[in-house]
Design goal:
Pfam family, one: F-box-like
Strand content: 15-25%
Domain F-box: 18-54
Structural class: alpha+beta
Organism: Panicum virgatum
Number of strands: 12
Helix content: 25-40%
Protein name: F-box domain-containing protein
Shape: elongated
Number of helices: 10
Distance between the termini: 96 Å
Order of helices and strands: HHHEEEHEEEEHHHEEHEEHHE
Length: 354
């Protein structure tokens, strides 16, 4: 009778192929992941991954929903419903829920077994990001735009900030239509390159002023909310805060982030946002624009905004840099709209700080 043969595991199969990869290559892969949820899941794979996740340079945070500080998952705001118009007035009392769930399994690298993010349901986005120690490029996406508009209305804005507003451009239209292929539009009799008289009498100018103020408030509120993140991440060289609707984008580069840290932030006395400085505005208008992709934009308006007194805080930007910022603010057919509007007559406006 033959003795039973013992089965031994092939020692080759016991080798973890990931252990053969150098940390620099794994970190390069994790930088391509970017998404904070996916990085949270990666951190739960092993102690090695957990340590490397905190060293990633590029991080993308997508906020789908938020819950009240004293609430729980049942109190989650449903941001897929008609967009809340006052989300930013309550934002400081709201915090992330879904983006932090993957981090529940993360452990401290010191091996004490304690969760890296204790009581995550009570942590703010800034506290979650605080565990990433080498962030260079950060992109945050909010669930919806900040400025409520009627259906069919176009409103987009892009703002550059240092410690205060440096530049802002706003593109609006009272209606976006799909024009039939091959269809023609007869130019309005009032479109002689100048602002029509009806623009002043039918509330057209007032509407543009409301768009401008609302967009600046949204931008200054986002800017104020970033202060703790910027303070906690001295390695940041690029910061972008946008929304899923593509309505508004706030961006800060390396020089602007440096200037933000060196100067005191001027907060508005009336709310939790940065004070908007006195500004000069250049407004351009076209009753009708035909854009690529079969899009027609009615009441097209472009507003370029600069602080009235550039200098110590805001720095100085040349005319060439300003034009480049305006022309590159939007993509696709809206980039064409900006190019067409820049050729129109310019109307100068002034606005006090608020």
């Amino acid at each position: 009778m033959h003795p039973k043969a013992r089965i031994h595991a092939d020692p080759v199969l016991e080798v973890d192929q990931f252990d053969c990869l150098p940390d620099s290559l794994v970190l390069l892969i994790l930088n391509k992941v970017e998404d904070v949820r996916s990085l949270g899941r990666c951190s739960a794979v092993s102690k090695r991954f957990c340590g490397l996740v905190s060293l990633v340079h590029d991080v993308y945070v997508k906020i789908d929903r938020v819950v009240a500080v004293d609430g729980d998952a049942e109190d989650t705001l449903n941001l897929s419903s008609p967009k809340p118009r006052n989300i930013f007035s309550h934002f400081l009392k709201l915090m992330l829920f879904t983006i932090i769930k993957p981090f529940h399994s993360m452990r401290n690298p010191n091996g004490n077994g304690r969760p890296l993010f204790a009581q995550l349901s009570q942590h703010s986005p800034a506290q979650v990001l605080r565990n990433f120690t080498h962030i260079r490029n950060l992109r945050v996406e909010l669930p919806s735009g900040d400025v409520g508009t009627e259906e069919g209305v176009l409103l987009k804005w892009r703002a550059e900030y240092g410690s205060t507003l440096q530049s802002c451009v706003i593109l609006g239209g009272t209606r976006v239509d799909r024009r039939p292929v091959g269809g023609e539009h007869e130019p309005s009799l009032e479109d002689n390159g100048s602002m029509p008289e009806s623009f002043y009498t039918n509330g057209g100018l007032k509407l543009r002023v409301v768009w401008t103020i609302s967009s600046l408030i949204a931008a200054s509120t986002r800017h104020y909310l970033l202060r703790s993140i910027i303070k906690d991440h001295p390695t940041l060289t690029s910061l972008v805060l946008t929304d899923a609707d593509g309505q508004g984008t706030l961006c800060m580069g390396a020089e602007q982030l440096k200037e933000f840290r060196e100067n005191q932030l001027s907060a508005s006395a009336c709310s939790n946002r940065t004070q908007v400085p006195a500004c000069n505005m250049k407004l351009k208008y076209a009753p009708y624009l035909e854009l690529p992709g079969g899009i027609a934009l009615q009441g097209a308006t472009l507003v370029a905004i600069k602080p009235s007194t550039e200098g110590s805080n805001g720095g100085h930007t040349s005319r060439k840099e300003t034009d480049a910022f305006i022309s590159g603010a939007f993509d696709g057919p809206f980039k064409v709209a900006v190019k067409a509007l820049t050729k129109r007559r310019t109307y100068l406006l002034e606005m006090n700080g608020f």
